[in-house]
């Protein structure tokens, strides 16, 4: 009788421990979700400003430089490299309808599409996650946002994020709820980590720091790009 009582007591004690830990994780998860949401909104606003101020100029400069290389190749009697993928999408309907820039930007977009296209999804939930990533890739392509496309392509953990199981309902069982909350917390923590590793995010931080000292870093970068574009066009005119 005594041994039976000893065996049942730990089992009875584990349930409230799991429930208490689940409550703690639920509160932590709520806070981290709010943090991620605030970071995403701040980052979204910065990327929109970056695209308006810098993105188009970057794409224009890349296009002029590509024209210079083709002109130099013609003068040297060489065949310029053809952009085989130009206007010939591997995934029908994936490419954005309007986009500044060509060549390297388009190839970068296709590289992202090959990695994250929804057709590669194992289930509907993964397909939705891949659709969200491709929506961001399409936005970056339209805006000439090379940094965001490169970040998507270089992020080795993002495929794991795509494939992570996600459930709409939280399990009622304490132990199962604890596992669910841990998985959700890992996903949110990964989202925060990925955002903070983005090169544009670091640019956002440095731009904010410059603004505190009375400088507009994006406007200065845009002015520098404008001068480079003018020089490149002059060079192209002399080659034509």
Task: Record keyword descriptors for this entry.
disordered N terminus, mainly alpha, 0% strand
Question: Describe it for me?
Answer:
It is a single chain. This protein is an all-alpha fold and 240 residues long. It has one domain (2-239). Helices cover 76% and strands 0% of the residues. It has eight helices and no strands. It has helices at 2-75, 104-116, 124-143, 146-154, 158-163, 174-197, 199-212, 217-239. Helix 1 packs parallel to helix 6, helix 2 packs antiparallel against helix 3 and helix 3 runs antiparallel to helix 4. The longest helix has 74 residues, at 2-75. It is elongated and about 75 Å long. The N and C termini lie far apart (99 Å). Mean pLDDT is 76; it is low at 1-14 and 82-101.
Oligomer: single chain
What gyration radius follows from the Cα positions, in whole Å? 25 Å
Flag low-confidence runs: 1-14, 82-101
What is the count of distinct domains? 1
Record the SSE blueprint:
Blueprint: H1 2-75, H2 104-116, H3 124-143, H4 146-154, H5 158-163, H6 174-197, H7 199-212, H8 217-239
Summary of the model, kept short:
Helix content is 76%, strand content 0%. It has helices at residues 2-75, 104-116, 124-143, 146-154, 158-163, 174-197, 199-212, 217-239.
